[in-house]
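Appendix B. One record, verbatim.
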Amino acid sequence: MAMEITNNYSNYAAQGMAGNTKKKETEKTQETAESSKTKNTAEYANGLAKLVPSVDFKVGNVCSSAKSGKSLTVNPQLLEKMQNDPEKARDMEDMIKGVESMSKLAEGIAKATGWTIVYQHSYIDENGKYHCRMQTRNDGMLKLSDKLREERKKNSEKLLERAKEKAAEKKEKLEETLEEKQAAEAEEVTAEKTEGGSAYNKAEQLINEKMAASKDGTIYLSDADMKTIIEASQEEDAGKTTVKDQPQVGANLDLKI
């Protein structure tokens, strides 16, 4: 009888040990899976960061509140969607590239008009919507006399006019250098782009107007504003690839003013 009890106890102990071992193995497998997922997400985020080399790329739930620097924060839920949806990934990568273009464009306009960008923080939420908060400063403008201030305003207007003239010149040169079929196709595309200005000029004017209209130097860019920036960036890429065997007569968006 005593032997029977001992055997039962041994069986229970063995079963308990087996259960504990299986539980530990399951937990270890889950931990490994979570660790692998975290590692893959980090690697994916590092790849996206290369699309915006001029800003600090972050993963988080809110836009940076720092009073200096440039940053882009992407919501972690959006990152997960991008990893599982190739089409979503392409759209968001275009937007991230647009942040880089916007940063360079704003910097160029600021330098040309005497402004200083104090900070620039962008955020893409879980739904892929873009938000941006930018603080600019023009200390010199505050010290200028009314006459000099008016001259500075005229210079800004001339800057916009010059950009429009460049767009018109590029269009004319494109029509002169391309063959008839290419010119016919390009003319239709150019007509769409130049209706109210090329995508680049629209983006340039958008930021310039926001700087001029800001009373305290704070500028906000919406999702719709970013789409204008993205169009400018895509126009740049199209200008580089459309005419391969001929001089670069398409859009030359080097984001310089």
